[in-house]
């Protein structure tokens, strides 16, 4: 019984130890410049309403602030929101 508990504890610890690397792999961001290019292209091609364009411009600005701060993940989040507003 003790050996079974030890094996189970080892397996549990192994799984827990691998979770941070799995989380990082899922949330890995692309360079913010790539997303910024996508936002710029979407803004040129969109037929969205002026209010939606204004929201996208605001989100793009927030994304640029995060990009300049070397926070690619934060920038990508704002750029993704801008793309969503523009229907992309």
Describe the protein.
The protein is built from 4 helices and no strands. The chain is mostly helical and 88 residues long. It has a domain at 32-85. α2 (32-45) runs antiparallel to α3, α2 (32-45) packs parallel to α4 and α3 (50-68) packs antiparallel against α4 (72-85). The radius of gyration is 21 Å and the shape is elongated. The N and C termini lie far apart (57 Å).
SSE layout and pairing:
Elements: H1 2-26, H2 32-45, H3 50-68, H4 72-85
Helix pairs in contact: 2-3, 2-4, 3-4
Q: Features of this protein?
A:
88 residues, mainly alpha, 4 helices, 82% helix
Question: Summary?
Answer:
With 88 residues, this protein is an all-alpha fold. The protein has a domain at 32-85. The protein contains 4 helices and no strands.
Helix- and strand-based class? mainly alpha
SSE sequence, one letter per element:
HHHH
Mean pLDDT: 79
Q: How many β strands by DSSP? A: 0
- Detail the poorly predicted runs: 18-26
- What overall form do the CA principal axes indicate? elongated
Largest sheet: none
How large a portion of the residues is in β-strands, by DSSP E? under 5%
- What integer value in Å does the Rg equal? 21 Å
Count the DSSP helices.
Answer: 4
Rounded to the nearest angstrom, the distance between the terminal CA atoms is 57 Å
Residue share in helices?
A: over 70%
């Amino acid at each position: 019984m003790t050996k079974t508990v030890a094996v189970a504890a080892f397996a549990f610890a192994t799984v827990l130890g691998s979770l941070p690397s799995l989380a990082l792999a899922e949330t890995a961001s692309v360079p913010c410049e790539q997303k910024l290019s996508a936002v710029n292209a979407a803004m040129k091609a969109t037929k969205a309403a002026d209010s939606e364009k204004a929201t996208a411009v605001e989100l793009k600005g927030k994304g640029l602030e995060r990009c300049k701060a070397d926070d690619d993940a934060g920038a990508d989040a704002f750029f993704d929101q801008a793309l969503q507003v523009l229907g992309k």
